Amino acid sequence: MKSVKFFELIILALIGSLLVALAGANADPLDDFMIKPLQVNYADVPPTVDRPASASVSMTVLFANSCYQIFQPRVQKGPSNVIEIFPYATVKKGMCAQYTRTLNEAVDLGMLQQGDYLVRIHSADGSSIDNKMTIR
Hints:
CATH architecture of the largest domain: Sandwich
Order of helices and strands: HEEEEEEEEE
Distance between the termini: 90 Å
CATH class of the largest domain: Mainly Beta
């Protein structure tokens, strides 16, 4: 009698595990990712661009571990010719190898007209790198 009850408990546990696994298979894969700000180590903003054009900024960002997958900068053009760059990464949830790596990327600022611009690059620690850029 005890062995029958034990067997029933094992079967119920297996069914429960299977249901949990099936529910996870239908989950939205985006639930496995989050977006995190990146630490910026270096930014190169060209001081002068000779004509209205599509400008870009080069930067070096730090990926903290192997879960950091895709670099996703967000560029916001504000009033008074202020351009803010928020460097983010897609980060996979779960177990990650612990190492750091740097990534050199160019961020497109889009078409800019003649004028003086302040380019502010935000970093994960709350600091920012500010540079001036002139489009002639």
